[in-house]
Amino acid sequence: MADLRSDKGQASVELVAAVPALILAALISLQLLAAGYALTLADGAAEAGALALAQGGSAAEAARDALPGWADDNVSVAVEGDEVIVHLRPPSPFGTIADHLAVTSMASARSAE
User: Fold this and answer.
1) Domains held by the chain: number
2) Does 5 map to a domain?
3) What pLDDT is stored for residue 9 in this prediction?
4) Measured between alpha carbons, how far is 35 from 56 in angstroms, rounded to an integer?
5) Nearest to 74 by CA among 40, 44, 111, 42
6) Of 45, 56, 90, 101, whose CA is between 20 and 30 Å from 65?
7) Range of the domain at 20
């Protein structure tokens, strides 16, 4: 008769239960890192656009040029007066999550006159 109090196989059961939780935690961490990286990129792009605007150039073109290739379809650039506003969605395998983690950065330009 088998002993019901045996711990044999307990570690395997715990591992099977823990692996999905560890994978989920890793995915969440990577997504938050991607959102932070997107914010850094949006800040740099807004600043590049503001500098171009101050020099009389195209702010939208300069802001887009300051971003990596993956951001081409995930960015919107608006110029309102002397302000450049960059809205960027971070890379994500889940579009809905990326929409909720989208970042916006703004930079102002003053002409050198």
Assistant:
1) 1
2) no
3) 72
4) 31
5) 42
6) 101
7) 10-108
